[in-house]
Amino acid sequence: MSVSRGPLQETRALLDPTAPARPHIVEPWPRGVSRKASMRISDVLGALQLEFPAVTNSKLRFLEEQGLVEPVRSASGYRQYSPADVERLRFVLRQQRDRYLPLKVIGEQLDALDLGDESAAPAPARLATADGAHRPAIAGRWTTAGLAADAGVPEDFVVALVEAGVLRPTARGYFDPWSRDVVALAAALNEHGIDTRHLRAFRTAAERQVDLVDQVVAPWRGQHAASSRARAGTLAAEVGELCSQLHTVLVRAGVTELSP
User: Fold this and answer.
1) 82 - beta bridge partners?
2) Are 29 and 120 within 8 A, CB to CB?
3) Which of 8, 26, 51, 75 has CA 20 to 30 A from 248's CA?
């Protein structure tokens, strides 16, 4: 928000162009969200774990160390967060999960948001149901029927992806949050005559890349320090994104050679 000038200040500014301008104050992002630090770290985890089941105390402390969130300390030294802090954390975690962005880039995005650049503002992460209502995505709760309905494909198409080894449900029959994107992309390829059995190669290639990432982060993951384990998660996201980008470039280069 900006501080408005009164008539006297406006007149003085016109008479004396060298007079210093009143400061333009921009509320840090997210604007309009309470900054009252009334939430304990357990409250924050409760608010985030529905969408991010893997988030932990150590992850939150690591993000604090990186300067991405700044909880206040109570008189007894405990961290206390505000609803605005939770939204900043949600933004960071989504950018890591959905776009594999490095924390440095995410920090730059937050800086831009703090300065009023609304073009970087995230859209709410919501999924539309068949009746047009909206609900948040719930990690790990897709069933075969629900996944098929949300992706707009026949249920036997999802079954075929499972049989081909492209999708892997849990022992209780649920699918992870990425499964919806896998089904949608597989359906788009199917329209071009690429059958589900041909997609097994994609799964194999992805698993090999994950193995490479695992080799990189293993030394960090094996340490007992909470910050080291959090660093392993961040490093895995960054290296995974680099692998994905390299794969994309190689495919695009190969496709270009097919053009007449």
Assistant:
1) none
2) no
3) 51
| pLDDT at residue 80, rounded to an integer | 94
> Maximum CA pair distance of the chain?
79
- CA dist 7 to 3, 10, 11, 25, 45, Å? 13, 5, 6, 19, 49
Averaged pLDDT, groups of 10, the chain, 260 residues long: 41 48 67 90 89 83 90 90 94 83 87 83 45 40 84 90 92 84 88 91 92 90 79 82 85 81
Neighbours of 235 (CB within 10 A): 17
Token couple for 234? 């961040």
**How far is 132 from 11, CA to CA, in rounded Å?**
54
Q: What are the strands, taking DSSP E only, across the chain?
A: 72-73, 79-80, 126-128, 134-136
Give, rounded to a whole angstrom, the gap between the first and last alpha carbons of the chain.
55
pTM over 0.90: no
